[in-house]
Amino acid sequence: MIKITLPDGSVREYQKGTSSHEIALSISEGLARNVISAKVNGEVWDSSRPIHSDASLQLLTWNDDDGKATFWHSSAHLMAEALEALFPGVKFWVGPPLENGFYYDVDLGGQTLSPTDFEKIEQKMLELAKQNNSYQRKEMSKKEAIAYFTEKKDEYKLDLLERLEDGNITFYTQGNFTDLCRGPHIPTTGIIKAAKILNIAGAYWKGDEKNKMLTRIYGITFPKDKELKEYLVALEEAKKRDHRKLGKELELFTFSEKVGMGLPLWLPKGAMLRERLEQFMRTAQTKAGYLPVITPHIALKELYVCSGHYEKYGADAFQPINTPQEGEQFYLKPMNCPHHCEIYKSAPRSYKDLPVRYAEFGTVYRYEQHGELHGLTRVRGFTQDDAHLFCRPDQVKEEFCKVIDLVLYVFNALDFKDYTAQISLRDPENKTKYIGSDENWDLAEQAIIESAKEKGLKTVVELGEAAFYGPKLDFMVKDAIGRKWQLGTIQVDYNLPQRFELEYTGSDNQKHRPVMIHRAPFGSLERFVAVLIEHCAGNFPLWLTPEQFAVLPISEKFNDYAAGVLNQLQALGLRGKLDDRNEKIGKKIRDNEVNKIPFMLVVGEKEAQENKVAVRQHGKGDIGVYDLKGFADFVNGIIENDFKEKALK
RNA sequence: GCCGGAGUAGCUCAGCUGGUAGAGCAGCUGAUUUGUAAUCAGCUGGUCGGGGGUUCGAGUCCCUUCUUCGGCUCCA
After folding, report:
1. Mean pLDDT of the region A175-182
2. DSSP structural state of residue A446
3. CA distance A557 to A11
4. What is the pLDDT of residue A649?
5. What is the DSSP annotation of A131-155?
6. Domain with CATH 3.40.50.800 in chain A
């Protein structure tokens, strides 16, 4: 007999070789029906796989992330089976589950797929699923495995096999499809009831652009048809939040082919929004002891040679700007830090002066690859809420913590709750691609890890993701469609101070080297606004929104009164506009609702007589009649209350 | 950059197998003077992304170029 420990701590005894499916069956038939796979001693297994010794067991269903992953991985195999049936000779690379669905990278031998093929694949998948074939696991010797795929002429699987150890190789077969696979899998194909091919894309084999491009087919499946329908509806809803769509509809920003791709043009409303964000940050920074600086958009090549950026990015950068003077070359600035280093150097510094914190909304230009450009999230010219802190080595940790506080302050203000803090460290395998000494790197990495821990951040550590000049802490946020973007960033830099020979005089009257910290809580204003738009679906917080209200006169007779209302409210510190078009009130309301204006102030005969406004709130409807002061107090009260709740100032 | 879609009026889109462009909204003009999600009528507006080619004839077919969208980390 073996002892099985369940997640609630209870222990049950079973015959040696009992499978988790059988264990589920012994608990309840309903549970057994829903079990997709099982976590045995922390490892996900097929539910049919016999357990031979004492173990902890967690039965996984569709409601567990690991259960979903099993389901989708098996679905990838099902799709592969369908592809093989429809396109004989297709070769397979890998087909992993994703957060939502799965993909399979395949070599279609030059064929291309069209949306009509999508339907064919979906139908074939469901047809095969109905056969209710089981996924059968089989251990193979490396020799047998190689023989199998040599026969099949699948060089991709053979490549995988090369790097696998003999004795650790398994195959899975369902129906007519056999694949090299570690597993685990769902019991049978029959539980896959709904399938959708989402899209296809090219993907380099092993992610290397030197390799052949395979076709990546994305799909998703569900145990119930209803869930697929709901998912597709949710996907449509998410697309409505896309900042590129809302940015156009709400007149926030635009692009022009004449100006150049990836160079955003901020329209008045977008600019107003952005200016308020900048003001918010300026206020917070001033309180945190930052000093403003302003630097030009171009600098001599020598500056970047000194900083090392030229060596690192020179080839990918925009081309140099030449001047009439022989040999003089300027570059558009890709970063603000070298300029700030020169500001630090403009005067001798004492240890008593440190830390010095220079802040600038610095616009930088980077040559991003054509295909990488994406709305406001990836552009070629953008403005960072940049700052550089110069401090003594003993101040690094404290300064780092203060910066984390500032980032959290911003995220809190804007209700960003779903973020992860990514700590990016050196690639231990390849330390030569980084600039700076080993000891300095270790010091910096420790400071980051400790600060993040002290602030209680939910962190992910990524090896090899560090910048070439130092480790960093990035705040990652997801957009409407689930894509991850980096917003705030904090980076320790022991390198630039050395390259620029920055110094301060210590209490010992000796010269010492300061440490530099780069930080940008928003990251770039462009990307931040993009994520903000998607986060609030265009319904910006009252304190930020470009237009807080619109005054809607019932007819032209009340245009004068309405104009007076606008003036008085503006004098009371609110932002709004007058909608005096010759339209009926219903039309004005509709248009302003669509434009997500928070408050609509309807004014007609009654209001004009009493010097009041009838207030309608976006998405809520009529909320009653206010006098002007009362309305201003109401709006400001909401803002103050919001700030108070979040402990903002 | 690479693979695969797309590009028709300011916006959203229609235009079958080639026969010289169409709707709604927006805009303009006029009528209406309106009470909580679209008042009515008329009008303007497009060298069909650009360039080249095939053809008697190209929005439609071919080539090329630009822009745009999805993807190119997630190693059975």
Report:
1. 89
2. H
3. 81
4. 61
5. TT-B-EEEEE-HHHHHHHHHHHT-H
6. 549-648
A259 touches strand B (CB under 7 A): no
Question: Across the strands, what pairs with A472?
Answer: A424, A491
Closest CA to A275 of A263, A287, A266: A266
Task: List, by residue number, the catalytic residues of A.
Answer: 337, 366, 384, 386, 388, 472, 518
State whether the beta carbon of A303 lies below 7 angstroms from any atom of strand B.
no
Give the pLDDT confidence of A452-461 residue by residue, as tens digits.
999 888 888 8
Residues A60 and A39: beta-carbon distance below 8 Å: yes
Q: How far apart are CA A396 and CA A42, in angstroms?
A: 39
Domain A549-648, CATH: 3.40.50.800
HEC states along A348-389? Answer: CCECCCCCEEEEEEEEEECCCCHHHCECCCECCEEEEEEEEE
Q: Which amino acid is at A47?
A: S
Q: Where are the alpha helices (DSSP H) in A182-316?
A: 225-240, 243-249, 268-287, 301-307, 309-313
Buried b (16+ CB within 10 A) or exposed e, A323-335: eeeeeeebbbbbb
Give yes or no for a contact between A215 and A107, defined as CB atoms under 8 angstroms apart: yes
CA A111 → C1' B52, Å? 29
The pLDDT of A196-205, averaged and rounded, is 86
Q: Lowest mean pLDDT: which of A132-146, A221-235, A434-448?
A: A434-448
Tokens of A328: 């003089």
Q: Which residues of A549-586 are buried (b: 16+ CB within 10 A; e: fewer)?
A: bbbbbbeeebbebbebbbeebeeeebebbbbbeeeebe
| CB-based burial label for A198 (10 Å; 0-12, 13-18, 19+) | middle
Helices A155-162, A142-152: inter-axial angle, 10-degree rounding: 160
- The nucleotide closest to A556 (CA, C1' atoms): B33
Q: What is the pTM of this model?
A: 0.89
Relative to beta strand A169-174, strand A55-60 is unpaired
The pLDDT value given to residue A273: 95
Q: Kindly report the average pLDDT of chain A as a whole number.
A: 90
Taking residues A426-452, report their average pLDDT. 81
> Taking residues A529-536, what's their average pLDDT?
92
Q: Order of strands, edge to edge, in the sheet holding A576-578?
A: A576-578, A549-553, A599-603, A612-617, A621-627
- Distance measured from the CA of protein residue A632 to the C1' of nucleotide B59, in angstroms: 54
Nucleotide closest in space to A140 (CA vs C1'): B76
Report whether A363 contacts A383 (CB < 8 A): yes
Shortest-distance nucleotide from A559 CA to C1' = B33
Q: Does strand B come within 7 Å of the CB of A178?
A: no
The superfamily in CATH containing domain A68-240 is: Threonyl-trna Synthetase; Chain A, domain 2 (3.30.980.10)
Domain with CATH 3.10.20.30 in chain A: 2-61
Distance of CA A205 to the CA centre of its chain: 24
Question: Which residues, 6+ apart, have CB-to-CB distance to A634 below 8 Å?
Answer: A615, A626
At A366-394, the pLDDT tens digits run: 888 888 888 999 999 999 999 999 999 88
Q: What is the pLDDT of residues A593-631, one digit of tens each?
A: 999 999 999 999 999 999 999 999 999 999 999 999 999
Where in the sequence of chain A do the CATH 3.30.980.10 domains occur? 68-240
CA gyration radius, chain A:
30
Domain range A269-292+333-535, CATH architecture: 2-Layer Sandwich (3.30)
pLDDT per position as a tens digit, A30-49: 888 888 899 888 888 998 88
* Structural fold of domain A2-61: Ubiquitin-like (UB roll) (3.10.20)
